[in-house]
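Friendly challenge for the regulars: who can give me the structure tokens for this chain first? No prize, just bragging rights.
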Amino acid sequence: MKKIFQIKIILLLAAISVLIYSCSKSAAPVKKNNNSGATVSTYAGSGTSGAVNGTGAAASFTFPSSIVVGGSSLLYVGDFGNNKIRTINTTNAAVANFAGTGTAGFLNGTTSNAEFNGTANIAFDTHGNLYIADEENNMIREITASGNVITLAGTGTAGYKDGAAASAQFNFPEGIVVDANNNLFVADGHNNVIRKINLSSGEVSTYAGTGVAGFDNGAVASATFNDPYGLAIDPSGNIYVADILNNSIRKISVSTGMVSTYAGTGAKGLTNGAAASATFYYPLGCTFDSGGNLYVADTYNNVIREVSASGNVTTLAGSGVQGLADGPAATATFNFPIGILVNGSAIFVADTHNNVIREISFN
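First reply, four minutes later:
Bragging rights claimed.
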């Protein structure tokens, strides 16, 4: 995600120059009558950067970048800028610390004394273990169901090496997701590949991509990606990749081992319609419901998109203008949304540069 922030700064400087001289795991299908009935509200966070616990707007986050559900009433947030994992109780929107001291570093141990450096993305397995893409430590960390923080894979040195978990290397690992066969998949962003960690053996391998930045479909061994970030698994177990710099969603078929473009032409834009002709602008987060509908945090467009199971792309929420306005989905505004979660009849969004968690509900 650090690279994405750097890209944003470059684009902002370019825009200023122009002005000077003259811009997870599947959940139940979301029950919506139509997109026009959706409402966006701020669920937790004051909008001001901080690390304050509290209820709803009394709490604060710093660049929250991912959100997952765990247990019956808790949301877990990867609070990237605070180097923490936070929880939100869905019964009252109370925010609390779950893991991390807040100091950028690397330390295993209990959840209260462990240190992380950029908690980019998080994912649970079916046993209650929580995995963290510890981005700037170039590691995958684990919080066991018993509350112990350990290093699952990675040496801490940026690199590209398969093999045993303790000697494997990553380069800005970002999106992560766990499948039904006890495998953890990692979008290894700066290596432009999707890695696989066998959670039973600890073996790390390259699942898809050559390591060269590109936009080639085909067999997993020859396909190419360009800064892959978010990962999602559909009800059939296929893996989907938010391929940032290719402005597209890619699909990896687990049965055929083939990579294809699921949605997006590769061009930057905000065009709805058939998946093959729709356009995105640096999509980062994605998640499925059990009905096969994919929801995408279209980050640089500052909107939330939906790719229906039938292959139609629509804008679910957001006007496309950068801001923090609640209200009807069509006029609500976001600022660099990344994390996205379907939970029951609502969609939650880690609205990263607004430092809040938003909720999209349906009338």
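The radius of gyration is 19 Å. DSSP finds one helix and 30 strands in the chain. Your move, everyone else.
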